[in-house]
Structure to design on (680 residues):
DNA sequence: CGGATGGGGTTGATCGATTAAAAACAAACG
DNA sequence: CGTTTGTTTTTAATCGATCAACCCCATCCG
């Protein structure tokens, strides 16, 4: 079943069929009806390979994520996929697992597939690889870590805003000793978030205390360990901000297993607002970063670059807002105690 | 950069280059070296569209899942993707969101893309759609719900085994009143699991009590609500088995908010063994269903069908095992009390 | 009436591979 | 030396679309 048969069946040329399908020029209503009928009757679906070969377009997009198991990403993938679906694109999701070799392989494969664009939703991406895409004129959209230039756009999550919302909330409640659990510092995204935190503290005139800033791994287990470290401090924090919700959940568990209560003993704020955050006990106060918005912006930006090639990209800014649930409260002085 | 240039550069014909790349026939070592050199020097990557058009193969697989946000699926996607990567396939993940219209659209798109095979990892799939794939000779592998025939294989998770392991564990601990929280009964997978539970109870000579079998939604919120219903019973269960881990987590929260302790007051068993299950408080006893194994079996089976077309599919059986953590214990009679 | 205009179609080259069939070459044999 | 046989390589048709260039025909205008 191909375009030729449809053309014959409808008594027109293949060009007419092609132009009807692609709406690339006006076709008289009579002819159009005939052709649609033929398409219907034969159950014709255009061959994407042939189309791709002839037009140089694949209607495929690459979506590179670092860890699809991290709950942040499925949401992202879902929304991106949905947006793509509506615009006739299919996406190939490439999971890098934070592994460079794998990333290399995957990007090469995407190039071979002639993807029309790539969304790079991981902070770990080799510049050389980006160049490989760039020199082939493949549009790219980054999350957080891209420099805007020709064929490259960037979605910037406003961590400064998120951190300030979170910390302000804690300050208003009366907290002064605020701990922080970062992601693994090998990851750019973790460094960005952490430095946003430190910067904001400085701005508010709070002296940075190194011991209050610990390192997790973006996962529950890391949050647990980091929290335990914080609990060993002589003068421990009355509130802790974490770099993502999983970390906060881990921290919450550590607190519970030490017989401490959230938020009475320690206030806790997460980051991202994954679905799980609303269902913890107590429900987690967290900084919402809308994956839907991020995904949609990423897709829109990418689409724009694809439509008008050789155009300078743009930076899109995605704001945050604080979702106050029940893991934050005023510090109660009596729970303050020495660690010895 | 195309095969022609490479051929010229190496001083051979395009056919030779093609056959070298695809290893479809023997090439003399001398020629081979020349050609590889040319490929290297020119940085040549074959055009997948052209290749697909000429060969009728796309090296693309479709992976249809119902809800990528459900933690069971990212694991599955990840492992499947990995297996595919090693064998030179790329996958298009299609999220159906339990929506028929969407599913229809997605499957059609996969057909247009000329995918070499499809893994259907959702229980909700219209037979007509399956036929559309079948008549085109596209191999399919199902999870749980497929009938094996030409070009169709099926991966069967052994729910009977899982349920028996879980229930036996509870019986051994001394439980007799065992509650169950199912998934939404609109989903085939939920019905399968539930009937496995009921069947096993009968086998063990325990009278089914309708009030002990409630309905959740595979999510935390549904588990919570269902558990609350169970807690209102006059003679409430001393143990509850749930249809998946999220449901169990919801149930755990409901228990906690009623001041009840797990496992002292009520024992709880989940199903699936998602990563989260190990980190709840207390850690959740659950039936492990290896997503890695499921994904690998699915891929292997699909690959086999693809390699030897028109071959009868096979049914692969994936076992389960009970992971005993801390959410199960002997029932303590004193916590038994009327609900009034 | 003859030429310009433009809507509606068709023709045929082209995209970059694969792959039968043919050809070229080499070795073996009577 | 001519013929087989076997191995390696080339020729050229083919896959199924897209799209620039061209054609046809009706209409309009001076």
């Amino acid at each position: 079943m191909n375009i030729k048969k449809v053309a014959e069946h409808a008594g027109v040329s293949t060009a007419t069929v092609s132009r009807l399908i692609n709406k690339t020029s006006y076709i008289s209503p009579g002819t159009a009806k005939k052709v649609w009928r033929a398409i219907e009757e034969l159950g014709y679906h255009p061959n994407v390979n042939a189309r791709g070969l002839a037009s140089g377009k694949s209607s495929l997009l690459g979506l590179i994520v670092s860890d699809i198991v991290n709950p942040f990403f499925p949401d992202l993938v879902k929304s991106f996929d949905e947006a793509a679906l509506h615009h006739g694109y299919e996406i190939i999701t490439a999971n890098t697992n934070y592994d460079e070799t794998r990333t290399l392989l995957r990007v090469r494969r995407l190039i071979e597939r002639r993807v029309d664009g790539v969304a790079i939703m991981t902070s770990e991406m080799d510049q050389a690889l980006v160049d490989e895409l760039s020199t082939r004129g493949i549009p790219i959209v980054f999350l957080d870590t891209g420099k805007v230039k020709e064929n490259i756009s960037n979605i910037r999550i406003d961590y400064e805003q998120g951190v300030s919302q979170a910390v302000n909330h804690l300050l208003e409640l009366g907290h002064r000793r605020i701990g922080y659990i970062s992601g693994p510092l090998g990851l750019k995204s973790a460094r960005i978030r952490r430095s946003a935190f430190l910067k904001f503290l400085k701005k508010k005139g709070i002296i940075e205390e190194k011991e209050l800033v610990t390192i997790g791994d973006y996962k529950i287990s890391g949050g647990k360990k980091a929290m335990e470290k914080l609990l060993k401090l002589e003068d421990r924090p009355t509130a802790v901000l974490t770099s993502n919700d999983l970390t906060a959940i881990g921290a919450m568990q550590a607190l519970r297993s030490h017989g401490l209560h959230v938020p009475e003993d320690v206030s806790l704020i997460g980051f991202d607002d994954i679905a799980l955050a609303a269902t913890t006990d107590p429900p987690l106060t967290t900084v919402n970063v809308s994956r839907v918005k991020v995904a949609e912006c990423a897709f829109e930006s990418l689409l724009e670059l694809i439509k008008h090639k050789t155009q300078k990209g743009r930076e899109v800014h995605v704001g945050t807002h604080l979702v106050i649930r029940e893991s934050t409260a005023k510090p109660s002085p009596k729970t303050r105690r020495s660690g010895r």
Observations:
- Residues 183 and 218 of chain B are 5 Å apart (CA to CA).
